């Protein structure tokens, strides 16, 4: 793999990886170091890896590196065992939620344009049905029906991914 190929395949994920690392570590320097470690590991193994989903693979690497950093951090702190287990569970929950959101974003992009627009207005921008109807020129009933259909498609496709696709730890 050339340096140019590497840059095209992996560097576009840098911002998302940094955001995840920062959310997990709550430390800018450690988050930057974690992302740098991911890219260094990928670069060193660039000719050995066969990755089907670059983004998911990078997210997993960041998660593991952050967990290692948190474990090292914990050794220097005095937390009892129950708190450590709970913290790791919370981190895994956050990572899973982040990964699920990335998958959902991809699924939303696969919807027809009108369904995409309504999903974003309702669930991302949190508009009311009336606001969406006014903004789109659709009736509230039509908005509800279209949203219901879009949610059903998203739910089914999300379940397919979780049942047949990448399995998280």
Explained architecture:
- The protein is mainly α.
- It folds into two domains: 1-99, Rna Polymerase Sigma Factor, Chain: A, CATH 1.10.1740; 111-169, Orthogonal Bundle (Arc Repressor Mutant, subunit A), CATH 1.10.10.10.
- Helices cover 80% and strands 0% of the residues.
- The chain contains eight helices and no strands.
- The chain has helices at residues 3-10, 14-25, 28-44, 54-76, 81-110, 113-124, 129-136, 140-164.
- Helix 7 packs across helix 8.
- The model is unreliable at 165-169 (pLDDT under 50).
Brief summary:
The chain has 169 residues and is mainly alpha-helical.
In percent terms, what proportion of residues is strand? under 5%
Task: Return the structural class.
Answer: mainly alpha
Calculate the terminal CA-CA distance, rounded to whole Å.
29 Å
Q: Which fold name fills CATH's third level, the topology of the largest domain?
A: Rna Polymerase Sigma Factor, Chain: A
Label the CATH architecture of the largest domain: Orthogonal Bundle
- Give the overall shape: globular
Total of DSSP H or I helical runs spanning 4+ residues: 8
State mean pLDDT (0 to 100 scale): 85
Helix proportion range: over 70%
As a whole number of angstroms, the C-alpha radius of gyration is 20 Å
* Assembly annotation: single chain
């Amino acid at each position: 793999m050339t340096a140019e190929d590497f840059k095209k395949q992996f560097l576009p994920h840098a911002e998302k990886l940094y955001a995840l690392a920062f959310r997990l570590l709550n430390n800018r320097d450690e988050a930057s170091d974690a992302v740098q470690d991911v890219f260094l590991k990928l670069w060193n193994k660039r000719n050995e890896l066969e990755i089907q989903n670059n983004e998911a693979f990078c997210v997993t690497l960041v998660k593991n590196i952050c967990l290692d950093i948190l474990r090292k951090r914990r050794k220097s702190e005095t937390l009892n065992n129950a708190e450590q287990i709970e913290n790791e569970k919370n981190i895994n929950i956050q990572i899973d939620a982040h990964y699920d959101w990335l998958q959902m974003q991809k699924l939303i992009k696969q919807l027809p344009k009108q369904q995409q627009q309504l999903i974003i207005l309702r669930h991302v921008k949190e508009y009311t049905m009336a606001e969406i109807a006014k903004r789109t020129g659709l009736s509230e009933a039509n908005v509800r029906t279209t949203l219901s259909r879009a949610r059903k498609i998203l739910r089914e496709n999300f379940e397919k991914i979780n049942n047949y696709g990448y399995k998280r730890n």
